[in-house]
Design brief:
Layout: H1 14-29, H2 40-45, E1 49-51, E2 54-56, E3 68-69, H3 72-75, E4 86-89, E5 94-97, E6 100-105, E7 108-113, E8 128-133, H4 137-140, H5 155-162, H6 188-201
Antiparallel strand pairs: 1-2, 1-3, 4-5, 6-7, 7-8
Helix pairs in contact: 5-6
């Protein structure tokens, strides 16, 4: 015969029930749009929508009050943007500190982390980076604290872009390439290079009606 044991468990809390309902709603529509949809960008470029770490059918955003991305601009801020943040994964049901974050790549698992500890007066940022070659991020950090995904546009990159000051009379030709442009940090070519790099990381900051302030140097 078949025997079974019954274990008494406490009744679910309202928070637990809410989390379960959100997970059930999400799992009902989560589909592998492509087997290689490791990231938000991969997902939306394949025609899916990205919410809480899952690639969903296009237009499906079942969890209310949770960010849902349909384009690459939205994806730029999906994931850990600062070592001080926390990241919740619906797939694992875990909340992880963003002190270290990871990005899948064809060469292996790219990771960034803060190594400065608790320095007084210093805002933590991702000051160290590396790669675990030929390993996925799950393989690279198996048995350790899970490595949450990095946002393409971290808070430091955003702050650096917004702090740019354009040299007087500077014009940045679209698609221009520069050779060691920041050898002269105040040069127009250095400004153009930093501006292009900032927008490549943080496309949500692009505004054709906005222009960086011109410098006034003595």
């Amino acid at each position: 015969g078949i025997s079974a044991s019954i274990v008494q468990i406490p009744g679910p809390t309202a928070a637990m029930m809410s989390m379960f309902c959100a997970w059930f709603a999400l799992s009902a529509v989560a589909v592998p749009v492509t087997q290689a949809a490791f990231t938000c960008e991969d997902c939306v470029s394949s025609g899916g929508s990205w919410q809480l770490g899952d690639c969903l059918r296009e237009g499906q955003c079942p969890v209310q009050d949770a960010k849902c991305c349909l384009d690459a601009v939205c994806c730029a801020t999906e994931g850990c943007r600062s070592p001080e943040e926390q990241y919740f994964s619906m797939a694992t049901g875990q909340t992880t500190q963003c002190e270290r974050c990871c990005t899948e790549s064809p060469d292996g698992c790219l990771y960034k982390k803060w190594t400065g500890g608790n320095l007084a007066g210093v805002t933590p940022w991702y000051n160290s980076a590396g790669i675990e070659r030929q390993l996925t991020c799950d393989e690279a950090f198996v048995g350790n604290v899970p490595c949450p995904p990095c946002a393409q546009c971290d808070k430091r990159s955003e702050a650096e872009f917004e702090a740019l000051v354009k040299p007087p009379g500077c014009f940045c030709p679209e698609g221009a390439h520069y050779l060691d442009p920041c050898y002269s940090p105040r040069s127009c070519s250095c400004f153009c290079q930093r501006s292009a790099t900032g927008l490549s990381r943080c496309p949500q900051l692009f505004n054709p009606l906005h222009d960086s302030p011109e410098a006034v140097w003595a």
